[in-house]
Every structure is written in structure tokens, then in C-alpha cells.
Write a structure and sequence with these properties.
The structure is a homodimer. Chain A is mostly helical and about 230 residues long. The first copy, chain A, has 12 helices and 2 strands.
Chain lengths: ~230, ~230
DNA sequence: CGAGCACACATGGTCGGACCACTTCCGTCG
DNA sequence: CGACGGAAGTGGTCCGACCATGTGTGCTCG
């Protein structure tokens, strides 16, 4: 009996660890349904309240998914599920850390774009082209932002590394982008942005990884430099 | 009255969003203490149970910190706090995604090492050297692992990008490392690893960013390739 | 008068139960 | 045979009580 009580921190914390361990050790497969909250609580010897807190914690981490009236399920455990919380980091970042996040994005985005240049399929490349055209065809900031996000998302997906794509997605969360770009694009950066996007697209069409890497790095680097100056000043 | 009820999903979810918003909008500064659970629940018009779940969720995300008997506080909101959850991703990753994580690490680690070559201070460089020596002076896998982690951590810190360092930390969580390296080092990879670490250190001493980048990429790439072969086969 | 200690209080942690909201499934009725 | 409706199951919310721990206060003793 004493083995069920590792006496580690709070009861809820123990619940989190136990469930995480079950998944890590293969006892719970992706998509599988868990016992009910009541049963789980009984199994691990804790109250339903504490178990609910544990479940809620794993839910926000993208590990579990609770469906009202149906049950609790393990998510697919794909990169996109687990890295959703990355958006929180981006949303809560200010000043210096925002610049650091953009530096990370520059490194990853340039690599992803280079990989995409070598691997992208004609279909996806066409979609990237459509996004570019749509972006240049409107003046509505909201619409531009949406196409911009899709443009980079397609490229990241084409790189063939879902984990990297998911991280980049978090680093370009809609709210973050809206926050940073509001100021950036006010300084008539539209023309420059269009030129940079065109350069990226051109490199992809030419299947030139080095050019793609450089174009992507320059693109993110522009925003990075602007933000750096704005933060320091 | 209706403005306090955005009618968004569950009550708990609303609580999470509200607190997050307070922090994002500057109403709650890092390190600041929040009202008590009971007061917060009353303010946002929900039960203490639901509020507790919201607080627990933000606690695991590294946004809040609950101190028993004292109160609830906003964390320092540093990169290390918010990116702690990255370790969960690493711990729950298997097969293909593990390779992808290592690919991300290779990209970031090589960049961080290159930056470190240009920026590292003599003190920190000396510490890196000590870790290298300690790593080569023992045969205890546990001790080697500890020094190995510290070796890379020092370098990442020297790169001057705390966010990048925190991500790399998550990508090299102790449990992940133990899992992957157990198999890797069984294949007498000790000698190769030592050579690679020495090469990285040499590049840092020479203040040669390009050599540092190449050495770090090769180092991580070795493990990556081994894991890729092992996963595919 | 000052230092140290013990107690009371505030606060987060846990528990149990009750009820609500939604989903699912099965039996019934047309 | 199909559609409808209800019953059971399950997560969501709320309440109230009590426990465990940290904090501050006021008392006591030197």
C-alpha cells in the first residue's frame, strides 16, 4: 500500500505525474479513453477535486482532452497538440524576450525555408504562390495578416518537420503577430515585406535552399532589427 | 453585468483567460501577489473550485506560483519559467518526433554555439573547460551525463539568448537524455563523443564561430543519425 | 527595554457530496 | 424499419468543511 504514496509534493502533483507516467510507459495510447474522473480518483487514492485539477493541468498542456458527457481522452500527442502552450510564452513576452523569440524564429524559419526549397511539392508550392498573390491583392490588414500566416505555415509544413512547424506556429501566434506588426507595418513596411515575400517565393520556385535560407533570414531579421531598436530606444 | 460573462467555453477556461489577460495588459506584474483564491473567485463570479483549476493550469504553465500558507504570485515570467513545459513534450515524444526534436536541437545548438564562440567570457570558457575535463575523468554514466548537460548549458547561456537557452534546456531534459543516450552510449560512442566535445571546446577557445557551428551540428547530428536509423529500422 | 517564542489568523490544499449540462445508447413507438 | 424519447453515464460547477503551512502579532522572559 505504501508504494502508491510516493509522498511527493501535493496530491494533485502526484496525480499529474502518475498519469504522465502511464502515458510515457505506454499504458495509455494516443486517442485512448481514460477511466472516469471518479474511477481515476479512486484508483490513485485521491478526491475527485484533486484529480480534476490534475486532469485540467494535463489538458492545458495538450496531453489530455476532456469531452463533456463523453469522457477523457489522450490526445493524438502530435507536435501541434503538445506545443500549443508555446503561444502562451509568446503572448506573455515583452521587450528583450520578444527580440530573443524573434531571433529563435529567424534561425528556425530560415532553416525550414531552406528545407522547403528542396522538398516542397508542386501542389504546395502553388498554394504558397496563391497566398502571396492574395496578400498583395488586398489592403485590409486583417486579411494580409491571415495570408501572411498561411504563407509561412505552408512553407514550414513543406519542410517536413512537424515539430519545427509547430514551434514556428507558436512563435507566430495570431495575437503576437498582431501586437508586433501593428507598429511595424505602420511605418510603410508593406512594400518591403512584399519584396521579401517575393524573394522567398522565388527561391522556392528555383529550388535554391541557400537563397531561400538567406531570404527567410533577411525577412525575419528586418522585423527583429526594427523591434530591437524600438526596445532599446 | 453582461460584460463579465463572455460566455466562452467553460467557466474555468474563462478564469484562465482573464488572469492571463490581466498579466498581459500589465495589471499584474512579475513577482506580484494575487488576491486570495476566494477573493479572485468572487471577483470573476465563479466558485473557488473552478478558480483553483484555473490557477493550477497557470501554475503548470509557469505563469503563476502558489505558496502554501502565503498566497499566489506571478512568477518572474522569465524564459526558463515559461518554457519549463517544453520538457513534457520531450518526455512524451517517441519515434519520428524524437528525431524531429533532435533536428530542432541541432539547428538551435549549432547557432547557440556559434554565438557563444564570439561572446563567451573567459570565466565561462574556463567553466566549460572544467566540465569537459570532468567528463573525461570519469566512467560513471550518471556523472558523465550531468557534466554533459552542464557543458552544453554553459555554452547556451554564453550565447546571450536566454529564450534559446531555455528551449535547448527543455530539448535536453534529463529524462530524455537518459532515455536516448542509454542506447547510444552502449555502442562505445564514448570516444566519439569526447572527440566531438573537444572539437567544440577548441572552436570556442579559438573564437571561431564557423568552426563552433560545424562542430556542434556534427555532434548533435551524430546522435540524430543514430536515432534516425534506429527508428526507421 | 529588547529579543525570542508561542499562539492566532490568513491562505492554499484536500475532501466529500450535491446538482447541472451534455453525450451516448438503447428501448419504444409509429 | 426508422425515428423519437428517455435513462444512464460522464464531465462541469458549486458549496461547505476541514487540514497544513506560512506569517504576523503580542506576550513573556531575560
Amino acid at each position: 500500500m505504501e508504494e502508491t504514496a510516493p509522498r511527493k509534493g501535493t496530491v494533485t502533483q502526484r496525480g499529474i505525474e502518475r498519469i504522465k507516467a502511464m502515458i510515457a510507459e505506454g499504458g495509455l495510447a494516443p486517442g485512448q479513453r481514460l477511466p472516469t474522473e471518479r474511477d481515476l480518483a479512486a484508483q490513485l487514492g485521491m478526491s475527485r477535486s484533486s484529480m480534476r485539477e490534475a486532469i485540467r493541468a494535463l489538458t492545458v498542456l495538450g496531453v489530455l482532452e476532456a469531452r463533456h458527457g463523453s469522457g477523457i481522452y489522450v490526445t493524438r500527442l502530435e507536435a501541434a497538440d503538445l506545443l500549443e502552450t508555446f503561444g502562451v510564452v509568446a503572448d506573455l513576452s515583452r521587450g528583450r524576450r520578444l527580440v530573443e523569440l524573434l531571433e529563435v524564429r529567424r534561425v528556425l524559419e530560415s532553416t525550414a525555408t531552406a528545407l522547403a526549397a528542396a522538398r516542397i511539392t508542386p501542389d504546395r508550392l502553388a498554394e504558397v504562390g496563391r497566398r502571396l498573390a492574395a496578400m498583395n491583392a488586398t489592403d485590409d490588414p486583417e486579411e494580409i495578416l491571415a495570408h501572411d500566416l498561411a504563407f509561412h505555415r505552408e512553407i514550414a509544413a513543406a519542410a517536413g518537420n512537424e515539430t519545427m512547424a509547430a514551434i514556428l506556429d507558436g512563435l507566430s501566434s495570431r495575437t503576437l503577430r498582431a501586437r508586433v506588426w501593428r507598429g511595424y507595418q505602420e511605418e510603410d513596411a508593406f512594400a518591403r515585406t512584399r519584396r521579401e515575400h517575393a524573394a522567398i517565393h522565388r527561391a522556392l520556385v528555383a529550388r535554391d535552399p541557400e537563397a531561400a535560407r538567406a531570404a527567410a533570414a533577411a525577412h525575419v531579421g528586418e522585423v527583429e532589427e526594427w523591434l530591437r531598436a524600438r526596445t532599446a530606444g
